[in-house]
């Protein structure tokens, strides 16, 4: 279980807000505060999880992060019995009298959703569409009726009431819906879905500068290169993401590789980090992908 109790402070983890991001964050905060769960959707590495964490931090409650996956089930969400505990009292106050009192109780461990719902945490349900619809169904009662049904829990009450401060923020990648689980319309109908797209050149360069402390022209070289590659991709899937721009910048900075399109070490670094996605996305050979990346690097100088 991941409970993020500290606010993000280090520069590396800084959440950089350009005008668009600021606006998205303040609009989503308004919706969450009014009681509507927000769902950030967009391609891989576009910043969905980062904005979800930034939004959760604004709510100033403990934050719990849960990652969707096909094995997640009601036991993970509600909880389960983990075994038995027994206690024994032996009373031999009077030597000739032996009295034994033994109690055996099943021990229960709260699941993540139950804990968050009871304690009023902010739950980030990252990549929720990777979990099966049967698992996600439980969110319908939480969001609609404000109760969490306690299947399998041998308690007198069949549900717990949702804490008034409990909030949930969802993220998903629409590219992953195909071939995985179809997102349930009933659940989506209860969420305010906001699209998080790739940043433009300026936004991406700003993040590289402020997060990693590179010079303005260096940040632009990397953001231009990645943006030019995105143009080559057009509407194809697997576009190079902000995550890749960050990786290139971090490695170049860490290893003193000059961030210059004409520098061979820099070109090689870009080839190493970008060629696989270029081969997959553009369906070309590694040789062609390497040539393309090298040419685009040279253009950035
Ligand atoms: N506004 C921002 N400021 C600083 N860093 C950011 C910002 N947005 C995204 N990042 C960084 O970009 C990278 C990708 O972001 P993130 O993990 O949030 O994307 P994602 O859309 O959730 O990706 P995935 O779908 O692959 O999980 C991370 O390293 C994150 O720290």
Automatic annotation (TrEMBL):
Cellular localisation: Cytoplasm; Gas vesicle
Chief location category: cytoplasm
Domain of life: Bacteria
Name of the molecule in the record: Gas vesicle protein GvpN
Record key words, sorted: ATP-binding, Cytoplasm, Gas vesicle, Hydrolase, Nucleotide-binding
Stored Pfam families: AAA_5 (PF07728)
AAA+ ATPase domain location: 34-202
Family named by the database record: Belongs to the CbbQ/NirQ/NorQ/GpvN family.
GO terms for biological process, alphabetical: gas vesicle organization
GO MF: ATP binding; ATP hydrolysis activity
Catalysis performed (reactions): ATP + H2O = ADP + phosphate + H(+)
Species whose genome carries this gene: Gracilibacillus kekensis
GO cellular component: cytoplasm; gas vesicle
């Amino acid at each position: 279980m991941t409970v993020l109790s500290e606010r993000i402070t280090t520069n590396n983890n800084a959440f950089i807000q350009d005008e668009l991001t600021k606006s998205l964050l303040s609009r989503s905060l308004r919706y969450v505060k009014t009681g509507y769960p927000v769902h950030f959707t967009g391609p891989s590495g576009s910043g969905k999880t980062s904005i979800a964490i930034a939004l959760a931090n604004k709510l100033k409650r403990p934050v719990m992060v849960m990652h969707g996956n096909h094995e997640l089930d009601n036991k993970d969400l509600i909880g389960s019995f983990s075994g038995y505990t027994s206690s024994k009292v032996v009373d031999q106050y009077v030597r000739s009298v032996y009295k034994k009192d033994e109690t055996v109780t099943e021990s229960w461990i709260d699941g993540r959703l139950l804990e968050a719902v009871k304690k009023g945490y902010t739950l980030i349900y990252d990549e929720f569409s990777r979990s099966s619809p049967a698992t996600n169904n439980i969110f319908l009662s939480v969001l609609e009726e404000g109760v969490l049904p306690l299947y399998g829990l041998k308690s007198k009450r069949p549900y717990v009431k949702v804490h008034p401060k409990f909030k949930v923020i969802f993220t998903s990648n629409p590219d992953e819906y195909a071939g995985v689980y179809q997102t349930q319309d009933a659940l989506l109908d209860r969420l305010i879905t906001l699209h998080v797209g790739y940043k433009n050149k300026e936004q991406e360069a700003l993040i590289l500068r402020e997060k990693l402390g590179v010079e303005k022209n260096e940040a632009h070289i990397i953001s231009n290169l990645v943006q030019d590659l995105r143009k080559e991709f057009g509407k194809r899937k697997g576009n190079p993401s902000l995550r890749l721009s960050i990786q290139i910048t971090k490695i170049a900075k860490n290893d003193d590789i000059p961030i210059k399109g004409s520098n061979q070490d820099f070109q090689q670094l870009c080839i190493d980090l970008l060629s696989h996605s270029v081969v997959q996305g553009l369906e070309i050979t590694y040789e062609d992908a390497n040539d393309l990346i090298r040419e685009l690097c040279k253009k950035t100088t």
